[in-house]
Amino acid sequence: MEKEELIRVENVSKYFNVPKGKFLMFPLWEKREVLKGISFKIKEGEFVGLLGPNGSGKTTTIKIMAGILVPEKGKVDVLGYVPWKKEEEYLKKIGVLFGNRSNLMFDVPVIDSLLLFKEIYELDKEFFDKRVEELARMLEIKDILQTPVRKLSFGQRMRAEILACFLHKPKVVFLDEPTIGLDVIASKKVREFLKKINRNEKTTIILTTHNMRDVERLCKRTLLIKDGKIIFDGSTNKLIKKLIKYKYAKVEFNSIRNKSYEKKILESYEVEKCNNSLVGRIPYKEQVKFTELIFKAYDVKAFSLEDQSLEELIEEVFE
Amino acid sequence: MKYFESFLIGVKETLNFKLTLALHVVSPLIMVSLLSFIWGNIYDKDFLTYFVGVSLLLPSFTFYSSSSTKFMLAIRNGWEVSFAKPINLFLFISSYNLGRHFIPYLINLTIAFSYLLLNGVEINLAVLGFSLPFIVLFDTSMAYFISLFAHYFYSIWGVRVIIKLIDVLLSGLAFPFNLINLKETGIYYLPFAHKVYYIFEASIKGVLPVDSYLILLAYSLFLVLIALPFHKLGWKKFEAQGG
Amino acid sequence: MKLKGLEIIRKSFKKIKKYVKVLASFFRASIIRYNNYKIEYIYSLSTIIPFLITLFFWKILEDSIEGWSFNDLALLTLMGAILSTLIELGGFWGVMLWFDRNDRGNLALMITKPINPLIYLHGINFFPGSIPKLIFYLMLLITFIIQNNISISILSVVGVVFSYIVFFLFLGIIECIIIAFDKAAIPLFYTIIDIFKIADKPIDLSSVLGVVLTFFVPLTFAALIPSKILYEGRELALFSFIMTVVMLIMFSLSYRFAMKRFEAVGG
Predict the structure, then answer these.
(1) Contact (Cβ atoms closer than 8 angstroms) between residue A109 and residue C32
(2) Which residue of C has its CA nearest to A115?
(3) Is A150 in contact with A106 (CB distance < 8 Å)?
(4) How many domains does chain B have?
(5) Tens digits of per-residue pLDDT, B21-68?
(6) What is the side-by-side order of every strand in the sheet holding A298-307?
(7) Which residue in A290, B2, B127, B149 could disulfide with B159, CB within 3.0 to 4.6 Å?
(8) A100, C108: Cβ pair inside 8 Å?
(9) Which residue range(s) make up the domain with B70?
């Protein structure tokens, strides 16, 4: 059965006034188009990554979908609502998290902030208790619920923020850099949680991040935004395949079998030899040929070919 | 020199935020007009000279309350420790704040001076100029003293507000002190009137208010001496709590 | 038609119930928050000092002020003090400091919650430390009313409440201006608070100043009109009600303007 389209963004443009210079003492402004007629659709249960360099318009896109900003042109429909009308029913169905902002009250225990959200989102007690228990277990923060936010480590605080964001079981969640500033372990825990909740509750999640691991591991679909335009919209794997140009090769060998093959390898590919090992990058399309040559040239002890990271690929696109 | 730089940063910042500058200039002007109007209505007498004199000639009207807020934030956020630069953070903030209030003060001073001159009230600029450092010294000590509450209070802005309110009441900015016998009421023995009302009076008479200087100096010293041990104690508390 | 009306009433009650619950929750959180800083309660009580100093000045000046007895002046000061305590309790100071220390992005986050962002802002800035002081002032007011044989009616109490609401809505309009124009407008609030210092001065309502401070910068609603309502009642109480409606309209227009501007540039 075809899944329902929950988000429809059609031809959306947004302008900001930016300072251009000064005339006498007064600043001069110019209108800059930060979103240039973007369109996309997102279906129920999708996990979409919004990628782009700083200032490309990804946070603006999220803010428009969350109802914080109103676009100058275009249509947006999320869950059948126009976001910026801010209907209460709509706001109850979405969750928003900005990695560098806090939803929780700094001086009170986490649970008291959650109790406040219980009233704001009009949750009944039974649901609230069960939900907090379940989410706290998944995020491994059961023991810190009674601790004031100011006493938490950054990683714990961020997980508590995520709990608050998912507390009312939102249908659509907008996450703006949820793993910013987190260490490897904390990011991993956050990723695992997001993956589980997306799978189990069919929550539609839209994520912007600079951390490519988040996208590689979480988002089946990626939207690339550059200068206010969507330059790619499709599956993350497809994106990798489309952009991938090289494979990273690593070879360890016991001895050389054939010197002329070795010469051919060293002359034809960007590889460096160091004692009994070889490292370098080879064109994606020549990986089979390269592999054959390696086994002809050396008595191989270990051999690996790795993909370019998404980060590297994106870097190339945006450069 | 480095504090002069922070003074200049303050000046530049004021020039950048024109609405803030306008409000800094307009706010005392509105106050002066309203107060003179109200007291004029109550007593059927002209109070404009009095309020122009006490409110516009003397900078303490806005200076220390904003300094103390920045000091407080510095303490609350542990900037003093993290501010790993070879300067004194409190002096840095003070000179920066002095810079921020410099332009509005200069404008208000010009307005006040012109008004008073037009009305035949001569101000001895030498007396006024000589008195300003004493006012700034007292204000800085006061700001430093108030800021230490940040170690012990949460709503630090409240402490600032209450002291500012007391200051306004006791320095002659709300009630016209030329109607009140200050020695009899005991207000003379507090520092507030000496940094506003008495200096205004002395500037008109052209006599150096030595008594006021001594009282301001004594109170500044007193405030700093009380504040220093609390400052140390506060830091111990801050460090014990792990910042 | 009748059913639709009932539905609206039911929905309104539901909304009121929600907001009461949310405010109670905010209040509970603020009490927990200030449990860490119990000394705040003592600090708040210390703000009675300016009130006492003002009374002291009125006592000195009472003989020279025509048409106003010390009792009138004291009541005026007391009504102003009650309002400023309510301002403190309602978190207005905290909100200003919040605007000063946070950028627009934090407000953006509040907008995504199913609750009015201004209520949210005040909620997180409630200051329960003012309660002892409020109790002190109210007790003082009751003592004053009993001692001076002032007859209090429901109308006069409601009148005082409306008069205070006019001033709160006025502060609300300033908050909207700050939301619309960002930090640059914060000094406007401090200007108003500076001007607030003249609210407890004996102004003649029929003078030019009285008219300006009633209709343009509604300062007389902070102390003068409430204290007069207690003595004279009826007409001024009705006037406060009409002004509440006017201010409500102005507040709602400013709120819409602020949100519109925020939505254009916000975050």
Answers:
(1) yes
(2) C25
(3) yes
(4) 1
(5) 787 788 788 888 888 888 888 888 888 999 998 887 776 545 566 666
(6) A270-274, A277-283, A246-256, A298-307
(7) B149
(8) no
(9) 2-240
On whether any CB of chain C is under 8 Å from the CB of B45, the answer is no
**pLDDT by position in tens, chain C (length 267):** 566 788 888 888 888 998 999 999 999 999 888 877 777 787 778 889 999 999 999 999 988 888 889 999 999 999 999 998 999 899 988 888 788 777 777 888 888 889 999 999 999 999 898 899 999 999 999 999 999 888 878 888 999 999 999 999 999 999 999 888 877 777 777 777 777 777 888 888 888 888 988 998 898 999 999 999 988 777 889 999 999 999 999 999 999 999 988 888 755
Burial of C45 (0-12, 13-18, 19+ CB in 10 A): middle
Cα torsion angle, B148, B151, B153, B156, sign: positive
- Residues of B in Cβ contact (< 8 Å) with C90: none
In angstroms, the separation between the Cα of residue B67 and the nearest Cα of chain C is 14
Asked if this assembly's ipTM is beyond 0.85, the reply is no
The CATH classification of domain A245-318, taken from the options 3.30.2250, 1.20.1070, 1.10.3470, 3.30.70: 3.30.70
| Token pair in block for residue C93 | 């100071």
CA distance C122 to C120: 6
Provide the shortest C-alpha distance from residue B31 to chain C (in Å).
Answer: 6
What letter represents residue A265's amino acid?
I
Record: contact A66-C112, CB cut-off 8 A: yes
Strands of the sheet with A26-43, listed across from one edge: A26-43, A5-23, A73-78
Which amino acid, one-letter code, is at C251?
Answer: F
The amino acid present at C134, given as its one-letter code, is L
Rounded Cα distance, A239 and A281, in Å:
20
Query: Among all residues of chain B, which has the CA nearest to that of C196?
Result: B31
Of B35, B42, B170, the CB nearest to C65: B42
Interface contact A112-C32, CB threshold 8 A:
yes
Q: Across the strands, what pairs with A5?
A: A43
Q: Min CA distance, C94 vs chain B (Å)?
A: 8
Q: How far is CA C96 from the centre of its chain?
A: 14
- Chain C: nearest CA to A167, how far in angstroms? 12
Contacts 24+ apart (CB under 8 A), C230-237: C230/C75, C230/C79, C230/C145, C230/C150, C230/C152, C230/C156, C230/C160, C231/C150, C233/C153, C233/C155, C233/C156, C233/C159, C234/C155, C236/C159, C236/C163, C237/C155, C237/C156, C237/C158, C237/C159, C237/C160, C237/C162
CA dihedral of residues C119, C90, B151, C97 (deg, nearest 10): 60
Q: Does B189 touch chain C (CB under 8 A)?
A: no
Chain C CB contacts of A85 below 8 Å: none
Report the CATH superfamily, name and number, of domain A5-242.
Answer: P-loop containing nucleotide triphosphate hydrolases (3.40.50.300)
DSSP letter for each residue of B59-82: GGGTHHHHHHHHHHHHHHTTHHHH
Delimit the domains of chain C by residue range.
1-36, 38-265
